[in-house]
Amino acid sequence: MKGFLVTGTDTGVGKTLVSAALIHGYAVRGERVAGLKPVVSGAVDGVWEDVEILRQASIPPRSREECNLYAFPAAVAPHWAARQAGLQIDLDAILRFLEEQAAGVERVIVEGAGGFLVPLGNGQSFADLAIALQLPVLLVVDLRLGAINHALLSAEAILRRGLPWGGWVGNHASPQPVAAGTLEGLQESLPGPCLGVLPYRAAPCPQALSQYLRIPASP
């Protein structure tokens, strides 16, 4: 299995946007790419927007069931959403799902939910999924005040587990100006590579924003 596990410094930082932009970048190279979000919570009118974006961005496009395994309506942490639904998230089931969906494509872009240590239940978190997958972990950083601390804590958690580091992407998730020195501080403090910095767009288009990313070569 080749690709990335995309995580973020928080929820709502642009993981789905970066994931879809990566998919487009690899598709331009002629690769078949699966965008996968195995666990999602928070539906609007019965639709999970992140899943819709990833499944439609995939080459070839996928059904919702081919993009997502666990979907919960409540916009709360996945382990709590599962508990409210009377379910348990099974890490082994997620791994089987990802292996099945990786068949027939050159690359997978697997998006987490929330940040790197968001719990899945039963004492497990997305960090355990990352350890099991051993895909390079790509960190999406929301460029706002406090980003340096959040990014460094996330990077430390990833690297302390001996996981392959895929680099980071800065994202202007808000139209508010970035605090002076934030981007420079991240560039000085985070391990490279920085795969790009995405500008703010009120209606972001992953295909258009992919031009701001440096798409890594295989593996």
TrEMBL record:
Q: Which cofactor does it need?
A: Mg(2+)
Residues annotated as the enzyme's active site: K37
PANTHER family, sorted: DETHIOBIOTIN SYNTHETASE
Alphabetically ordered keywords of this record? ATP-binding, Biotin biosynthesis, Cytoplasm, Ligase, Magnesium, Metal-binding, Nucleotide-binding
According to the UniProt entry, its GO molecular function terms are:
ATP binding; dethiobiotin synthase activity; magnesium ion binding
Q: What does this protein do?
A: Catalyzes a mechanistically unusual reaction, the ATP-dependent insertion of CO2 between the N7 and N8 nitrogen atoms of 7,8-diaminopelargonic acid (DAPA, also called 7,8-diammoniononanoate) to form a ureido ring.
What species is this protein from?
Acidithiobacillus sulfuriphilus
Q: Which gene encodes it?
A: bioD
InterPro entries, per this entry? DTB_synth_BioD (IPR004472), P-loop_NTPase (IPR027417)
Under what name is this protein listed? ATP-dependent dethiobiotin synthetase BioD
Where is this chain's protein located in or outside the cell?
Cytoplasm
- Residues bound to ATP are G12, V13, G14, K15, T16, L17, D50, E111, G112, A113, G114, N171, H172
